[in-house]
Amino acid sequence: MIICHCTQITDHDIHAAINWMRDADPATIITPGKIYRALGKAADCGGCMPLFLDTMRTNDKMTVPAGLQNLRLRTTQESTYEGRPQSHRLSQQSAAS
Fold it and tell me: pLDDT by residue (tens digit) across 5-37?
């Protein structure tokens, strides 16, 4: 089935690119842009993107690598202290001195 009419990309092309990328590097993050580049093409109008993403999601190899899973949980558990003083305004710093 043709997914992108502008660049003539089929669902078979998308699955083949995903399988090739995953076999080449199991830890790679696969994006639509990487698939277009792997196929030697570039996105044109973007009208195909919903169908393109749905086709990507149906591939068995579209999983998040184990080392990258739950990153959001790790960052929220860490401190949010950025290393700057509590009062970052000059007027507040001079009044406190």
Answer: 999 999 999 999 999 999 999 888 899 999 999
> What CATH fold (topology level) applies to the domain 1-62?
Arc Repressor Mutant, subunit A (1.10.10)
Tell me the C-alpha distance between 97 and 92, whole Å.
Answer: 9
CA 3/CA 47 separation, integer angstroms: 10
The phi and psi torsions of 4 (rounded to 5 degrees) equal -120, 110
Contacts of 28 (CB under 8 A, 6+ apart): 21, 22, 34, 65
Contact (Cβ atoms closer than 8 angstroms) between residue 55 and residue 3: yes
